[in-house]
Design goal:
heterodimer; A: about 325 residues; Rossmann fold; Alpha-Beta Plaits; 4-stranded antiparallel sheet; 14 strands; about 35% helix; B: about 240 residues; mainly alpha
């Protein structure tokens, strides 16, 4: 359980995080989503005890970041952005250092080290110097370091950057497996990442939370409209009479695909029965419907709306 | 909870010896001090059974070698970003500082042990005062440890190892040799006394002559603990910024 309340961080005159409040129950994978500079990394650095906030508070399993930093560091595993590593050690020496720092000893230490090497696919490089291994292996070594003590809470800053598609899938599987029993917070500026791994998402922009909830909740909240992709055949093409159909809000785009075949992009009011109306309209006008594909607002659309175009809409 | 510093010491030591820096420091140290003793100072033609001349130059060599040992310790962690790993492992800031200090001290002790052949091999040629040699070693350990503590503190302020090294050398140069300046320049007694008290080199003089003076011992322990303390405070301070 992570509870963050009215958290803020100033770097000089820049306020990187502003009055952020959220709670994360145990056993969830949650994504911090936002463009670069939205404050994701700063929030993670505060939660891991690396920096203090300028105001507000944060608790992890009831431990305060101010009063019980050691307890927090014990229960958290952390992969910082770009997976910084000791390049003058080899992978084994590095994992051994982290294991011993986490007070793992003897047989238990050996077991945990074997487990992370296996789990993160590091067997081939364990005795290689860290400055000689590829970006993908470095990222996995960083992840191995974060999970070696089987932490209650795993905090991953951009865990899949620099990985190839196969490696990304592997890491996501690992994160999901971990998320069944533990709490995982990951940050990303990529939407597929959230859609692929996270149950809940917190969307940040310029240091503030602009939306939070399960991906379903955010969709429901945000779906002011549904898109309809419609392909018709017949005649000289549809006219503006389609706008008279109840629930059709806007004709966004109209293209002629080939002779007498047209593609329309419509925006519909939610739950208005507009789909049936459009169908009846097409029959009445004598068109053949070749394709009729309703499209939900994708998380990407929502994201752009919240972080890019939002200010224009509000003002 | 018990104190947890052994993993830090082991890691630092591996880092020293996995990079060229440890070997460069050790070789430079041995070559320079030996050339000084046998070639520049003509130890055998002097015909005196004392290593005062040898141990006297080592604090000067330390001006360059102690910052070389400590320059990476914090600056490189900051540059590589590994400090974020280190500070989020379950250590207290003080444990990290002591761990790095003891690792560097280990390097210093290795350097000291590598000089042992010199008194041992020379012992058949004359009657050496072993009490004096012990005091000289003890003094070197203290002045070296003070240089390490200061060097670590400077590395914690620096953003890269080169600036940590240069600033470290300048500060140690001043603190080690300021006592020589007071001998040449005509300073009012209070000023001379003040600079002498500050000087790392001045407090070494009695150790070099074979005397262990508790005031000098206290001075070194004060310098060592002061900069270890300030180093710890620096780490805490940086969490707020």
């Amino acid at each position: 359980m992570i509870a963050v309340s009215n958290l803020g961080k100033r770097y000089g005159s820049l306020e990187a995080v502003k009055n952020v409040t959220f709670e994360i129950p145990t056993g969830e994978v949650i994504g911090l989503l936002g463009p670069n500079g939205a404050g994701k990394t700063t929030i993670m650095k505060i939660l891991t005890g690396y920096i203090y906030p300028s105001y507000g508070s944060a608790e992890i399993n009831g431990y305060s970041i101010f009063n019980d930093p050691l307890e927090i560091k014990r229960s958290v595993g952390y992969l910082p952005e770009n997976a910084p590593l000791y390049t003058d050690l080899n992978v084994m020496e590095y994992l051994n250092f982290v294991a011993e720092s986490r007070r793992l000893q003897g047989e238990q230490k050996k077991q945990r080290m074997d487990w992370v090497v296996e789990e993160c696919g590091l067997a081939e490089v364990v005795y290689r110097n860290i400055d000689e291994i590829s970006k993908g292996y470095k990222q996995r070594t960083g992840l191995a370091q974060a999970i070696i003590h089987d932490p209650e809470i795993l905090i991953l800053d951009e865990p899949t950057t620099g990985l190839d598609p196969n490696q990304i899938i592997e890491i996501r599987e690992l994160i999901k497996r971990f998320g069944r029993e533990k709490t995982v917070i990951l940050s990303t500026h990529r939407l597929q990442e959230v859609e692929a791994t996270c149950k809940r998402v917190i969307i940040l922009n310029e240091g503030e939370i602009v939306a939070q909830g399960t991906t379903e909740e955010i969709w429901r909240e945000m779906k002011g409209e549904t898109m309809l992709d419609l392909t018709l055949k017949g005649g000289t093409g549809p006219d503006d009479s389609i706008l008279q159909v109840a629930g059709v809000k806007k004709l966004i785009e109209r293209r002629e695909l080939s002779k007498a075949t047209f593609n329309l992009h419509l925006s519909l009011a939610p739950d208005s029965g507009a789909l049936e109306g459009v169908f009846d309209w097409a029959i009445a006008k004598g068109y053949k419907i070749l394709a009729m594909v309703p499209q939900r607002l994708s998380l990407e659309d929502i994201f752009i709306k919240l972080t890019g175009e939002e200010s224009e809409n509000v003002n | 909870m018990s104190i947890n510093i052994l993993p830090i010491i082991k890691k630092e030591f591996k880092s020293y010896f996995n990079s060229p820096i440890a070997y460069i420091v050790l070789v430079a140290f041995l070559v320079f001090t030996s050339v000084w003793l046998f070639y520049l100072q003509q130890f055998f033609t002097r015909n005196v059974a004392s290593l005062r001349i040898y141990f006297g130059i080592i604090p000067v060599v330390f001006i360059f070698l102690m910052p070389a040992i400590t320059m990476r310790s914090w600056a490189e962690e900051k540059k590589m970003g590994t400090i974020e790993i280190l500070l989020t492992l379950p250590f207290k800031e003080g444990e990290l500082v002591i761990g790095k200090f003891l690792a560097a001290l280990g390097m210093l002790i290795i350097m000291m042990m590598l000089t042992l052949p010199i008194p041992l091999l020379l012992s058949p040629f004359g009657t050496f005062d072993w009490g004096e040699i012990f005091s000289q070693y003890f003094g070197l350990l203290l002045i070296g440890a003070a240089g390490i503590s200061l060097g670590l503190f400077i590395s914690a302020q620096a953003t890269n190892q080169l600036s940590a090294f240069i600033i470290g050398v300048i500060v140690l140069l001043f603190l080690t040799l300021v006592a020589q300046v007071t001998q040449v320049a005509q300073l009012p007694p209070w000023a001379a006394g003040f600079f002498n008290y500050l000087s790392l080199g001045y407090h070494f003089e009695s150790f070099g002559r074979g005397l262990i003076d508790s005031r000098d011992l206290f001075y070194y322990l004060l310098v060592i603990s002061l900069f270890l303390y300030l180093n710890t405070k620096t780490l805490v301070f940086q969490k707020w910024h």
